[in-house]
Amino acid sequence: GNIYIGNTNVPRSITIATGDEGLTLTSFANVGTPLNGISVINNYLYNNSALKISSTSTTGLGGSNSTYLLKLDRSGANGNTGHNAYGVYSTVTNTNATSGTNIAGYFSASGATTANYGVQVGDITSTSTDDSAIKIGTGWDRDISFADSSAIIAVASGVGNTINFTDGTNTLCTITDQGTTGDLSCTGTISTTASVRLDQILA
Predict the structure, then answer these.
(1) Are the beta carbons of 4 and 13 closer than 8 angstroms?
(2) Cα distances (angstroms) measured from residue 67 to each of 60, 63, 64, 113, 159
(3) Cβ(141)–Cβ(153) under 8 Å?
(4) pTM over 0.85
(5) Backbone angles phi, psi at 199, to 5 degrees
(6) pLDDT higher than 90, residue 108
(7) pLDDT above 80: residue 169
(8) Residue 181's closest CA among 202, 160, 150?
(9) In 3D, which of 182, 181, 163 has the Cα closest to residue 173?
(10) Which of 6, 94, 158, 163 is a good FRET partner for 37, with 20 to 30 A between their CA atoms?
(11) At a CB cut-off of 8 Å and minimum separation 6, what does 32 contact?
(12) Are 14 and 2 in contact (CB under 8 A)?
């Protein structure tokens, strides 16, 4: 059945269904005022979570089937220009008396026999000329920091596959997979402060 919550201006309902969706929250009207569908406020966090979702299910189907603890879908043609549409938006600006660390997003994956990915960015088809799988803003001391003492950056295996370094317009350097070796090509000068043997450079 339906449980109706709201007033005469902003009607809403909570639907407890018997089908695929167990609980549905619906907002029926657009009254021109920005409103949150669900707000969770907890000002007493000391060693707990404002919202926790967990599962110990072992009934996931095989093949190409997947299960999700949280799945977000957003689509539709926005009627206004210059609008930014987010799927997930997180900010943490806590201050600390003496020490502490703010982490806007933490991801960890382990236990799978095929592969574990901390973050996977999917494929897209786009006509835009400014698509980035990951875009990092300014002001960071380190834009990327590896804790591993032997970090690896991988490209799909195959002769001719490349890693390109660009400024957005010009290709500055390219590393090309040659099977068991890699070729480095840069459009400018390669310099070093260390002692380098010429035969090693030309080999």
Answers:
(1) yes
(2) 7, 12, 10, 17, 36
(3) no
(4) no
(5) -65, -30
(6) yes
(7) yes
(8) 160
(9) 163
(10) 94
(11) none
(12) yes
Place of tokens 């000002």: 43
Show the tokens assigned to 62.
Answer: 């095989």
Classified as helix, coil or strand, 11 is strand
Residue type at position 108:
S
Residue with structure tokens 């409103």?
35
Tokens read off for 16: 């407890």
Phi, psi of 12 (to 5 degrees): -135, 165
pLDDT in tens, 11-53: 555 666 555 655 666 665 555 556 676 778 888 888 888 888 9
- In DSSP terms, 24 is beta-bridged to 15
- Max CA distance (Å), the chain: 82
Closest CA to 183 of 201, 195, 170: 201
133 forms beta bridges with none
